[in-house]
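Deliverable D5.2: sample structural annotation.
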Amino acid sequence: MINITKLTTFFNATKRILLFAFLLINLHTGANNQAFLIKADDTCKIWWSGNTCKVMKDDPVPETKKGVLIQAARNEGEGFQLVLFPRTTLKEVTISISDFKQKSGNVIESKGVAIRKVEYVHITKPTGKFHVAGWYPDPLPLAEGSFSVDAGVNSPLWFTVKIPHEAAPGLYTATVTIKSSGWGTTIPVRLEVWDFTLPDIPYMRSAFALYSGVVREYHHLDNNAELNQVLDKYYASFKEHRISPMQINDLYPIRKKVNGVWWNGGTFDPDTVFRGRYSYQVNDNSTGSNSSGQYKDLIKIDPSKPYLLKWWVKTLDKDKKYSVTVRCYRSDRSFIPWQLKGMLFEGSVGWREDSIYIDPENPAAIDEMVVFRPFPKEAAFASVHLYPVIPDKQGGKTGVAWFDDFRFIEMDNYRNLLPEGSFEQNINDLDVEMDFSDFDTGARKHLDSLGFNAFCIGPPELSYGPFWGRKVGWFDGFINGTPEYKKLITLYLKGFQDHLEKNGWLGKEYLYWIDEPKQEDYNFVRESMETIHEVAPRLKRFITENNPGPEIMDVTEIGCPVLAKFDPEKSKKWIGNGREMWSYLMTWPKAPHVNLFIDSDAVNMRIWLWMSYQYGLTGILVWNAACWNTRESTYPGELQNYWEDPMSYNVAMELPVGAAAEFGNGDGVLLYPPNRDPNHDKNKYLDGPVPSLRLEILREGLEDYDYMMLLEEKVKNAKPEQAKLVIKARQALSFSPEIFRDESNYTKDADILMKKRKEIARLISAFNE
């Protein structure tokens, strides 16, 4: 009798082995049906490939001959790879290309052509179980000056031709000239320009983080002027690749000032009070700093008079020691060191009264040791600081304390110098002053000049602050649910909304203030999202989501799940109700899913956009474009050299310094720093970034998406006599399983995409006739 269980197990195991073998064969470059031999002589074989392919060093030289032909729309960047396979090492190699010319005399100048060397990084730690170690193409530095080409291996050159807006349609030809010491050759290149133009601002919105600190560090920059000069080159690279940086307000912040709040560092707590509406909760939840509540203004004092400080207090833990201190200042408000007045107190889980008496003549002493003296004669002001623990040099203690009815009494007339110590708030005193001058400078640069179509704003006031008890939005000491918070957040967000509308920027923003919330945070997230909509309903709320569980997307205008978690059927209802849906790629999941790793399929970054169109997605996100260093994993003073170690690391897990969980090769890095040895090369680099091969392929995908959207618009605006074209267009925009079934079952053959792209292009041109 056949054992069905054993037979099933056998077939499943065999299927896994075959899948693994298939992935190993096809994972890195995919099927390359765009590779053709151009010419071969005794010195060098030269072949070419399309630019959705990773040419490995040991890929076989194709035998089929075919000349270089690329096809593109106006305002598109289209490219190809020219691969040298020399029999002997070539030295002093130079590459140039002529203008593209038509027989009719029209010219596309060669200055619009970028020629880059395809360089390789050594993957010693494969990203996942279906990835393998080896040398992978990724950095694309400009091919400037002369260089050497090693014998016996492929050395690709990456050409990108930018088609001008005004280019006449039709066929153009150019010549690539390759010279080395003792050898040279020319290669003809044909370019067909289609009769339509891609928009300057892409249809697909995007979000790619770029943080100025890492750029300053790796370029060894000394000041903000140098930093801005270099960042402008990074932003130019973003524009060239049709993606938008997340941040405007990294260097161009919205400056705000809250008036009418007299304490900072703690929270006006409506849940735990001694009397009135609020106590002041001070929460030190960090082991690396000392948190305190502070009265914002200095208190005018007379050092010849006695003072009594009295307050009510309770602590979270029984017998937990806390501290209240008073600092001294001269008449010019300069700090007087070594004149701290304060005591350590025993906490209590119930309310109790404590005090400090500052005698104008007698110092306070413990065991005949002076703890603090009277106010010094030069003192004119004092400040009050409330600590929930005993502050120490390391800030290693944690704790929570509540203070109420705090009085600073001048004893000769019993006058309270600190009426705000009741922690009751006059809501009419609250105001938010907003200064948009810096932000506007950045917005005009990013949104108006460079044409970026999206930017992130992440107000920290929507996140929870130093408040113990529950997660809730926090704004300058007030929590969501209180009338004071409501007034402050309304002034802030509505002011921001109105300012964007006034300047024509409203709709490009997305409020991305929390990342991948867990299910236990959904109530908190929902509360803050609903607050945004209530006080500034035209601002676009945004959320990333990769956790299974209850829905949270319904309180956003833009939902952004990780691509592997995207549900096409469920999203139809959301999109039908006017909500945008984006997707993002990150460290998870790995092959065979679509991902962004160096040691993965070349087609991944392009097919992502095809899937996006089919699913109705309107945006893409990658958490970082230049995360070159995982500071928590490197030793102090050491920088990760991404040219040598292209693994991105996860620092969320608690591991020893020098160890970290691995995100994946190239995760969060689509640009390389020009400094290839940042630990030893201390020269100042004022150059822009080196783009990656993956970023170039992503740009191709973004342009494909523009093709699809242009054809879709042609269908929407079609004339009655174009009915047959409409039928063909709709068929062309509905992708067969040959292209993809889902995000883990998709073609690795870029030629399939190129044929479909050509079909779409022909249809767009036909509508224009």
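Annotation notes: The chain has a mean pLDDT of 92. The chain is about 20% helix and 30% strand.
The annotation will be released with the project's public dataset once the embargo ends.
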